[in-house]
Amino acid sequence: MKNVFFIVGPTASGKSQIAAEVAARGDAEIVSADAYQVYCGLPILTAQPNEATLRKAPHHLIGVAPLTAEMSADKFRELALAAIEDIHRRGKLALVVGGSGFYVKALTHGLTPLPEVDQTLRAELNLLSLDELESRLTAVDPLSAETIDRRNKRRLVRALEIFIQTKRPASEQRREWKEQASGARGVFVLRDRTDLNARIDRRVEETFRDGVTEEVAAVSEVSATASQALGFLEVRQLLENRTTQAECIAAIQHKTRRYAKRQLTWFRRQLNFEELNLSRLKDHHAAADWILQKVRLLRPSE
Q1: Burial, 113: exposed, middle or buried (Cβ in 10 Å; 0-12, 13-18, 19+)?
Q2: Residues 53, 16 contacting (CB under 8 angstroms)
Q3: Is the same domain home to 56 and 162?
Q4: Tell me, what's the pLDDT at 174?
Q5: 211, 170: one domain
Q6: Domain count of the fold of the chain
Q7: pLDDT score, position 142
Q8: Domain check: are 40 and 136 in the same one?
Q9: Does one domain contain both 188 and 91?
Q10: Which residues span the domain enclosing 142?
Q11: 226 contacts 36 by C-beta, under 8 angstroms
């Protein structure tokens, strides 16, 4: 992780705008660590940086995967390391920016090798209900059952797959991550809870004004991974007339606030990055100034 700096934090905290300014002023390029912005076809739903932000500095791993592709921490790590190597060949600093904690930790700590997906086993597990999956996982891997989002069927299935194929709990194997062996440096940006929740609510409302309903309506086939993008299933329900727009917006806002809370917990527990509360600063320029000081400590020769 030499000449790599991480800017991580919850959704809607303002990471993208700040990182773009830091990259522009610090002669750096951005590698996105977002599990859903990597997909093309849903830029509004996944809150991909707008054109003005993208023009400030080169961005990598945004809108590069088809919606039919399955993504994983393994695949992300491979793509991200290739992008970082390319950036370094041009003598630039790489800024890894995102809120997908597992993807970030795949870079900072590496990954324990896990078995390839057994499609027959996956198909069998996918026939089970959420309650059945949770019950089975609790019996063999209570720690994973406690920490995984119990409404996320894909993650419940994967944790069970790992146990069935390796005879060891997924939570036990994840504890084998190296202790910050990469020497990763970075900052954990956050906001006061009321501030962050208000930003989340506004952003969800803006996506509907920007045409997220039409965007999702234009999508046909999606992978199990892509379908987990925040709001995708809710907008699909709206398109099927199973809910109203007001109910859809409220449901996505609630779901996003819950996700942000989990992100905050993850980053506080998993990474030893210095915290920066953006609610206490005047504007994003002040945040960029603060982060640039840390970046320049990483590159003292400049």
Answers
A1: exposed
A2: yes
A3: no
A4: 58
A5: no
A6: 2
A7: 87
A8: no
A9: yes
A10: 119-174
A11: yes
- Is residue 248 scored above 80 in pLDDT? yes
Identify whether the C-beta of residue 217 lies closer than 8 Å to the C-beta of residue 239.
yes
Given CA atoms 126, 131, 135, 137 in this order, what sign does their dihedral have?
A: positive
Confidence at residue 90, expressed as pLDDT on a 0 to 100 scale: 93
CATH number of the domain within which 163 lies: 1.10.20.140
Q: Are residues 256 and 232 in the same domain?
A: yes
Q: Is 110 left (phi over 0), alpha (psi -120 to 50) or beta?
A: left
Summary mean pLDDT of the chain: 90
The pLDDT tens digits of the residues spanning 165-213 come to 888 887 676 555 555 455 789 999 999 999 999 999 999 999 999 999 9
| Integer Cα distance of 72 and 102 in angstroms | 9
Written as six digits, the tokens of 131 are 């309650």
Distance set, CA 75 to CA 33, 99, 217 (Å): 12, 17, 28
What pLDDT, on the 0 to 100 scale, is given for residue 302?
44
pTM exceeding 0.70: yes
Q: Could you tell me if 211 and 78 lie in one domain?
A: yes
Would you state the pLDDT for residue 210?
A: 97
Confidence band (pLDDT; 50, 70, 90) for 234?
A: very high
Query: Rounded CA gap, 52 and 90, in Å?
Result: 23
